Amino acid sequence: MYKLLSGLSIIEASSFVASPTAGLYCAQMGAEVIRVDHKAGGLDYDRYMLTDEGRSLSWENLNRAKKSVALDLRSDGGRDLLVELARKTGQLITNLPEKSFLSHAQVSEGREDMVSVRIMGWHDGRQAMDFTVNAASGYPLMTGPEEWDRENPPPVNQVLPAWDFITGAYSAFALLAALRHRDATGEGSEVRIPLGDVAIGTVANSGAMAEMLYRGADRPRLGNAIWGAFGRDFRSRDGKRFMVAALTAKQWTGLVEAFGIASEIAVLEHKLGVRFTDGDRPRFEHRDELFDVFRTAAGQYDYAELERRMITAGTTFERYRTMHEAANDPGLVTNNPLFGPAPANPSGFDYPAARSFANMPEKDMGDPAPAPYLGEHSEEVLAEQLGLASGTIGRLIDKGVVATSDKD
Question: Where does the chain hold its CATH 3.40.50.10540 domain(s)?
């Protein structure tokens, strides 16, 4: 954890992936992020996969470095306390509906400089989640083997909820932008970020939307080949699959050197009347002929030798791993300064945890902070943020409006 956002307190009332991700990134940069849940846990509190003790590993990792307050959010008293906390800090991240007790109009009463960031489904208010907006984006019908039926191909859903994570990251950015505006003007802001707009907007920003409109049709499936450049998967003599990519002249010449195919490439260039060092276009347009040459060469080497040659030549490549292999890979995890120990995980399971993705060489990264137990900081936060006396908090606990740690 860095301390760049020290002194900033943020209330987070959220569930699932996008909204907790926004709070996580702020917490990893030093903000005090206070996640407020219903006292029995939010909708994602027991999200699969669970340990034998019933703790969600997803919840645990999306809520590292945060504080946890548990309230009876089905009661007026619990909802009022959440609204008070949001007003007191002046910053709110949520994915609760706008037409709820946590609307911007409600939380900004008496707090004109209130900044709320609300993650939504679609811009028109319809519900959405990562896998449904991905279906709308067109990407699932763009992937898959080339030989699949072009008239009625099946979709390929991505396993990673990428739109959720992109939305979470964008929400953290939007929050800090709104806070900077408030510092300059004193004005609060309501920021609404529809998940669907993040998806279709990213399609537009990538140039893919313009491409579809320009070509007047869909892009063909290319299997594992990279669109518009040279790159795809190959198999070594000993059966290892790996991915290579060449988007620059240096990367291309390195691959040719590593695979030992300079003469074959020269023959192919003469036959086709092109120079593959001229850029992406000739390499992409003649990819099938090039793939045949690379495929034959890859089959002549064991992967260890090919890896050595590709490293020496300065190429861009990586071997395919299962996720279990990746989680146990020394280069990716054990020897990577991104990861550190996370003591006292609520799950009781000891494993590496990620620090902030940002690497600031002159600043101490610190160790990753553990996730809280549900309700672990209820008393602390109500006392510090709202100035409630211990007796008042005790009575709220007795009434069931406030819950404390579920550790035991």
Answer: 9-203+330-403
Determine which helix (DSSP H) or strand (DSSP E) holds 232, and give its type and residue range: strand 230-235
The 10s digit of each residue's pLDDT in 155-184 is 999 999 999 999 999 999 999 999 999 999
Q: Model-level pTM?
A: 0.94
Contacts (Cβ under 8 Å, ≥6 apart) of 266? none
pLDDT (0 to 100) of residue 263: 98
- Listed in order, the ranges of the chain carrying CATH 3.30.1540 are 230-319
Query: What DSSP line would sit under 172-231, residue for residue?
Result: HHHHHHHHHHHHHH---EEEEEEHHHHHHHHHHHTTHHHHHHHHTSPPPP-TTSPTTSEE
The catalytic site residues sit at 164
Within 10 Å of residue 296's Cβ, how many Cβ atoms? 13
The CA distance from 65 to 390, in Å, is 25
Those residues with Cβ within 8 angstroms of residue 304's Cβ, 6 or more apart along the chain or in another chain: none
Strands 402-403 and 67-71: antiparallel
> Domain 230-319 carries which CATH code?
3.30.1540
Could you tell me the two tokens for 374? 């549900």
Q: What is the CATH number of domain 9-203+330-403?
A: 3.40.50.10540
